[in-house]
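User: I'm curious what two different proteins look like when written out as structure tokens. Can you demonstrate?

Assistant: Sure. I'll show them one after the other, since each token string lines up with its own sequence. Here's the first protein:
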Amino acid sequence: MKRILAGLSLLALVTAFLVVVGAAGASHRAGNPSPVKGSFKYCDNPTFPPMESKTASGKPVGFDIDMAAAIAKLWKVKPQFVFSSFGGLLPALGAKRCDVVISGIFITPDRVKQYPAVPYMKTHRALVVKAGNPKSIKGPDDLSGKNVAVQANTKYEEYLKALNDQFKASGKTQMNLQSYPGDEDAVAQILLGRADAVLTQDTAAGTYKRKNPGKLAIAYLFPETDTFGIYYRKSDTKLGAALKSAIKTLKKNGTLKKLAAKQQIPAADVK
């Protein structure tokens, strides 16, 4: 009788063990889809509000910061901010200092040759000037002979350098191009009277206007759209697939629209 009871007890233990293991396996398959372990590390240059900036106490804030946190929440891991200069973002990714780059960075052919990217927002470039537009800047051609500030190591800077080459080739006066570490630094030059215009994004331009009421204006919006993307390493195919799935989920459940509204970014930019 004791042997029978012992056998039944052993059978019960084995059955319970198999149930637990089976449940754990099902949970792993259907539950946490995280392609990263422990934390979700993202490289960011917090000088481009409302996408990313820092509070007076040094805390990173902005759309990209909130989106990274939302992705981490889906994956049930902690988001980990990794600071980088803008020009150092992709090199930092290549050096594995972070899992991805989320920093208001355009998806461009030259960049995706090295690193794939997942799109999440479409916006327009903008020329910001002093309120009242005293230099009558109505488009790129009007930048000839003007003092123009821009964030260094960006596609904005590349565009303006190419435009300067066009001015020179056509016999026009080149602009005096001033490059600064951050987008906010460049815009500050307008307020200080050192620059006539700044090339930035409409998302940032709107923020600068709100922060400086009556002092700045948007002189021109470029008709073409630019796409912000999350960059990752080519070897991280599972991470890439998980990022695409995460962005799809955050768009479908309305999270990205809520984050856009928080920063006064048009909902259409993240549809």
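Here's a second, unrelated protein for contrast:
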Amino acid sequence: VFTAPGWNARGAILQDGGESNELSAKSRWLAFLGCGKNSKSRLGYFNEVTELDQSLTRVQMMISSWAKYCPYDVVRMILRTGEEVELGVAPQQVTIFFSDIESFTTICERLAPSQVLRFLSTYFTLVSEIITDNQGTLLEFLGDGILAVWNAPLAVSNHAERCLTAAVTMQTMVNKLSEVDPTWRQALATVDKTTLKVRMGIHTGQCLVGNVGAPSRMKYGLLGDKVNTASRLENCNKRYGTSVIISESVWREPGVADNFVCRPLDRVAVKGKSEGFTILEVLSSRSDASTQQLVLAGLHIRALEAYRNLDFHRAVELLEESEKRSRSIGESWLAARRLRDEALHYEKNPPKEGERWDGTTRLAHKSFDDSPE
């Protein structure tokens, strides 16, 4: 039966395709069925197969639409288990990614809604592809922001490294969009800039991962303090004038130090936390790093070491050199300036003997908009 002329897996359509061929295909089927004594049963079988194919097509379309509303890997897991989803989470070591677009509020105020939609759609389409290509899971669009995770729901080896690969690729993509895409150029004109900055924060740690919400309405997501930390790191870019900030826990993950050039910026305790940790800026993939970027990373490593060892004079010298080099190659100079100012302060007013001091900057705010000129 399935060798009948014109049949294919998508229904009674000719193999060379097209709705215009549907009647021709059905005519071939009717000729194949013939007018003998079994033609009625054969015709009934043909109709059943056609209806089954149409039903499968509708199911496929619904699954495809469903996957546009929640992560595809989650949809696939639900289909494989064949069970009704329930609330539930489990601990999992993951790498968390937050991002948002600088000056997006101003762009929204100055562009028509249709222009804003085109602007965001172009950006989200490209970013979501980059995340997926690097084995990440896009969890949510948060206005102009993005929340993504690596190593959940599916296990991903070297998940921090893959996340950073995605982040660096996104930064390259944003720079190219600013140059060639008319929608982006229109958005840039509203804020008097030649390129838009996308701020990113990345943190690795253990979260509760799974279905959260209410029995009648739930989503696949993350719970835990590590999610807040990633969000704070994204916002720290405002303070340091940077684009991609990672925590030291990311830096320690397999593949990161070997494949990326990062410069330590500071030791911080984010709002709501008493313990501090080192934060780093991702300058480049190691394969694409310039000599100047490598020198810059080395300057910051030595400067922070001197700063924490109370050698504030040496720290000031190194950070002033870093600021100078940063300006000359177009990297952010603000991080060096901020830490230099701190070192100058402590050079004149050193920590008192017996005082517990570890060089941690305690950030009292969730967001920072006080960048000096």
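A detail about the second structure: The chain has three domains: 19-66, 91-254, 286-373.
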